[in-house]
Amino acid sequence: MKKMIMFLVLLFILTGCVNGDRYTFSGSSENWDVFYVVDVSDGTNQVKDGIVTYTGEDDPPETIEYKLEANLGTSEGTGITIKDGTGSIANGACRGCAVIQEDEEIKVEITWNGQTENLIVTTDK
After folding, report:
1. pLDDT at position 29, please?
2. What is the pTM of this model?
3. What CATH code is carried by the domain that includes residue 109?
4. How many CB atoms lie within 10 A of CB 31?
5. Residue 106 · residue 68 · CB < 8 Å
6. First-to-last CA distance in the chain?
7. CA 125 to CA 119: how far, in whole Å?
8. Which InterPro entries does the annotation name (predicted)?
């Protein structure tokens, strides 16, 4: 249920007209759910937005570090604020670039309070 709520929140955040394709990636680990949406237009433009949600039994951390690896490169962040168990990761846009493909498996590493978890996010085909 919590996954579905976060997915809906992410979709509301990303609403708007998109002339192209929207790929929704998701994955879970023991303590984290990750949702990552990529809007691709004209085959060379993309907008990326990600959300991580803490699902562990302990109190959520205040900040995390992440590393996201796709076929085209890596995105990293440190000091990402977690509020009410949720944080924003790997957001950005580019024009005239190589874009993430629907069939990719994206590796995500999340580090917090001396712990690290790895997971794979894929599209729900």
Report:
1. 97
2. 0.82
3. 2.60.40
4. 19
5. yes
6. 20
7. 18
8. Membr_lipoprot_lipid_attach_CS
Q: Per-residue pLDDT tens for 27-41?
A: 999 999 999 999 999
pLDDT of residue 72: 83
Residue 3 backbone zone (phi > 0: left; psi -120 to 50: alpha; other: beta): alpha
* Phi-psi group of 6: left, alpha or beta (phi > 0 → left; psi -120 to 50 → alpha; rest → beta): alpha
Say whether 75 sits in a helix, a strand or coil: strand
Query: What whole-number distance in Å separates Cα of residue 16 and Cα of residue 1?
Result: 25
Q: Distances in Å between the alpha carbon of 26 and those of 52, 79, 87, 99, 106?
A: 10, 22, 15, 18, 9
Q: Give me the domain span that covers residue 86.
A: 2-123
